């Protein structure tokens, strides 16, 4: 391999489904199994399907009703705590071979590695190193992995996503020359990292259907269409990527946000949606208090049922001062909900984002705010947080959480909106 830099990208194949197979003593590569919540209707999305199901034409992240009735399969309820335990165990395996500074966990089932320092240490090439890690994971957890290697992070990801996952040894390698030779004419463009269906449609409107088309396109036209994102797109079209592992580790965002999003299991009325808004705001305020951060503005997005023509409404409200207190955030947010949301349309999704959060400190209070009541509210909220932290999130709830339309208690037992499991 040429160049001083060599990166690996390792993905755990059909991770959630593989874990469920291992727990049942089944072969993850041969068993027909999907991970989906049987308590939800057939429109619920499958979080994962086994490779055997995909070979039968079942798409990953499909809905349950899309699985042909002729295919026998096991439906495994999600167990997020179990998947997190497996992911932590696998990360521990990686740490036996590499330092944490050279590992970037990209998602629960995928990680990048700066492999260059270890090739001479272990006296092996990138493929041998990848296979060593994959073998250790397989032997100790029963989970099969795929790996891509490349001279930059983008090429390692492309080698994994487009080539390695379809090879019997589950490994592939790309440098810039191989990328242009093998993948320049590859379709569809959505197989490549960072290109979604929206971007693909805009590229097609310019007559661009492959990475080769993008590489040879007029750069000025690309910048007019995509702005600063055109730079990354053009680099990737040539198989180039300037970001290194060190850049990832040293990156510190100028601002950050805290958000919560909930897809409702049925159509909700305007009044029921207002209940969910209050529950989500309550949880976000406790999260900000726990992290020791405050916000000056909150964004609300309300999505409507697919049976309507209206997709979503979005708005942002500014707060009198930076805060994490429920009593100060809810009234302006509820006012935004009241004025923005269409009262006759069924609601199916609510998202709340606390924008540009920063560390809690001395704040300039409004002349209309009473310091004693603010201090009382802060102490009360902190006491609630401590009780929940010690005895569980459902140990202390508001009366409205018991209402039929409420989701807070159920969500308190979930991870990422899915069952936490055993």
Give a written overview of the molecule:
The protein has 422 residues and is α+β, with helices and mostly antiparallel strands. It is 41% helix and 21% strand. A five-stranded mixed β-sheet has the order 5-6-1-7-8. The protein has a four-stranded antiparallel β-sheet with strand order 9-12-10-11, covered by helices on one side. β13 (414-415) and β14 form a beta hairpin. It starts with 6 loop residues before the first strand and ends with a strand. 29% of the residues are buried. The mean pLDDT is 88.
Task: Write a concise synopsis of the structure shown.
With 422 residues, this protein is of the alpha+beta class.
The helix count comes to: 16
The chain-level mean pLDDT equals: 88
Detail the poorly predicted runs.
Answer: none
What share of residues are in beta strands?
15-25%
Rg calculated over all Cα atoms: 24 Å
Q: Classify the secondary structure makeup into a structural class.
A: alpha+beta
* Helix-strand topology string: EHEEHEHEEHHEHEHHHHHHEHEEHEHHEE
Helical residue percent? 40-55%
Spatial separation of the terminal alpha carbons: 45 Å
Query: How many DSSP-defined strands?
Result: 14
Strand adjacency order, main sheet: 5-6-1-7-8
Shape annotation: globular
For the biggest sheet, the summary is: 5 strands, mixed
